[in-house]
Amino acid sequence: MMLNGKTALVTGGRGGIGRAICERFKREGATVYAADLSAGGSLESGDAPRGFLQLDVTREASVKAAFDHVAEHSGALDILVNAAGVEIEKTIEDTSLDEWNQIFAVNVTGTFLVSKYALPLLRKSNAAGGASVINFGSYDGFIADPGLAAYCATKGAVHALTKAMACDHGPEGIRVNAICPGYVDTPMLQSFFEGEGSGGDGGSIDSLQQAVRDVHPMRTYGTPEDMANLVNWLASDEARYAAGQLWVLDGGLSAQVQQMKL
Amino acid sequence: MMNERLAGKRALVTGGRQGIGRGIADRFHSEGAQVALTGRGERPGDLPAHFQWYGSDVSDGEAVQVLAAECAEGLDVLVNNAGVQIEKTVLDTTDADWDQLMGANAKGVFLMCRAFIPKMTKGGSIINIGSISGTTADPGLALYNASKAFVHGLTRSIAVDHGPAVRCNAICPGWIMTGMADAAFAAAADPDAAKADALARHPAGRFGEPSDIAAMATWLASDESGFATGQLFTIDGGMTAASPLNPGLF
Fold it and tell me: Which residues of A touch B244 (CB under 8 A)?
């Protein structure tokens, strides 16, 4: 029970990684607000009123209302996870201005808005290890995957924002870190695979997935639970001295130079 | 067109017998520098007369002292390029492999810098050859990867400890077509497919050449780079800017 007595809010809380984080937080004893655009199915037992929270991270009124709700029911916040995110699979040439604005609205503006309105509640945290904000960067914020230009740019922005927030709010007892996943088995990844069809080698989606696994030193891509393991640590008091860092969790993918077929 | 950007400068390039070292030496000469090369053994038969040659071994402390006594005084540019590569994992690596590889790639750079820094001209430029493999790992090159990370760390330390007397930077080459790379392709199961795959990983659409590294070295050796120190300069045709996933997959 690493998070006993803590209150957490997770954006994208009904998505692949966000859902796993919410479930882990609950098992660790936290009160969890799973914030997302829609509940995505039936509410789980014990969800309300501290459970699913309707939230559009791109709309200031929605964000403000969500934190009014948290203030009313919990009074303080110990953990904020900015896991809401979208992906657009295009080069800059094929990306329309609307698409560009939309992905920045969710991935960057959303992280900004949610963090901004969470701060007053995070300051009220009594957590021994400080309040903890965990943003979602990506290994794509360091190196590029082809055809994901706007996505890569949003994640680079989140990395810089993470460091800036850590500098500004560390003195207030708020730790800010980002986790930078590589390939994680989520609906987003599956839709990416499906969008790529049979891949470059004329094979099936299965063979494409296997090829992607094989590029990883761990010979697999990650699960949402793998991400939740690190998020849980960063949220806990164990991580009381961790701040301003970008935590890459990618099965070793980006530790290697290009893997030539030699 | 010859710019003579290094006119009046004296440079020494270690490991200058072939490949990148020789490419840097040729370019430095064309830019007006007086260039000396050093390597183990006799002067190469095909080495043009305008190059001085010192037979020496950078991993041998006494030999480096002798070399420094002969040519360090008034030297403007030192390029620590000498290096060896042993294709083994940690488990397969012998103590003798360690001595050979770390002797040249790590101890050699240390010995050269220690002996040469006090004698170089004020504001002199030390250029170490690091590698993209010092930042991210190439499989089966354990000590090589580690030795290049050492070079990167030492580069920063020298810049910090010995500026402004000298500047010190490292160049991190990617795949440069030298004899070493030719041999790697020749050994592949399907050499043509291996070459096509490797090429697809280079946004520049080609492999590197010693002249690409020499171009960066020329800038770092010149007064144009007077404010550059303690940094790593990657020249790899864009390869490490991309995910290591096979681009052919997507």
Answer: 143, 215, 253-254, 256-259
